[in-house]
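Chain X:
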Amino acid sequence: MRYLLVDRITELEAGVRIAGVKNVAMSEDFLEFHFPKNPIMPGIMLLESLVQLAGWYEAVSSGFTKWFLVSKVLKCSFYGFVLPGDQVGLRVSVSDAPGQDMKIYSAVGEVGGKRKIRAEFQGSLVGLETIEEVEEQRHHFQILTRGLNF
């Protein structure tokens, strides 16, 4: 099963940051057992949404030749629950990294202006064509950005 956890990309500042949105729907299958009769978006899924946004940042920044794969979570803090019906504002910023193919990101997820997650993670860049169809990803990006040019 594959989860696409970024529903829209709202901002992109080359070399600096990217922002997007994750809408949490009651129909998301991961809510069925987390927890029965008290659905809460799992924290790891929030973290994954931030990592996926970093992947989109690298794809666009590289002309769709690279993708980010996380290898280590350096810091991660949770500040409250994300519930069905919430819209999570996602922000990912580039931090200083030890090398060209190693990246570090700082990220925040908020609901209604209240922080729900803050994380710092690192990983490497891989060729996008090794894990995805490049043209399919370009098309998906156009859908996520509603055709806006960043």
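Chain Y:
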Amino acid sequence: MAIRGKKYQEASKLVDRAKVYDPMEAVAIAKKASFAGFDETVELHLKMGVDPRAADQQVRGTALLPHGLGKQVRVVVFAQGEGAKLANEAKAEFVGADDLVKKIEDGWIDFDVSIATPDMMGKVGKLGKILGRRGLMPNPKAGTVVPPADLPRAISEVRKGRVEFRLDRTAIIHVPIGKKSFDEQKLYENLMSILEAIIHARPAGAKGQYIKTASISTTMGPGIKLDIKSIMESAVSA
């Protein structure tokens, strides 16, 4: 078992491992327990009560964070013709078709989100092994495959703080909610926006307890358990 550093051990003293916290209290403790010398990301971790192998139990979607993620989001767009014109007007960092595919095939991946128009997906499909493993592949369910007319809206949303959540093969969802420099209210509102989206994305095949455990932490900090009952009630009433 790895030995934690002194700073981590001191931060851990702020967290009662036997307790579950309501979301606002958890956010406050996460900020206090942050000790790294950089602006750490605050992350949400969920253990889901679904089977990731079952097609009717997949959990995937997007949430628009009211306060963003506190970082510049670099967007590339696979489009041509009118779509390319609209994407350039919306100031995407790079817009292209075959040239963009070739650029990525040659090793360039200096971006955070990729968006594509439906007619480009035949070309983009060749990049599956490169983009898929990094979570950068455009996908209709994530709102990153859109008609040309919707490109300005899609680019604007990802810049403002639209995040994608997706169940991994171990039935866990990891998703950022902001930076430790955000004030508590902003982190809380971002957290609740994501939780509400995940709860409302419950698949038809899900049985029993949907969310088994939930916690938040900063990049380097200790995990803080969330009160499942509290977050479920808040989402239902939202």
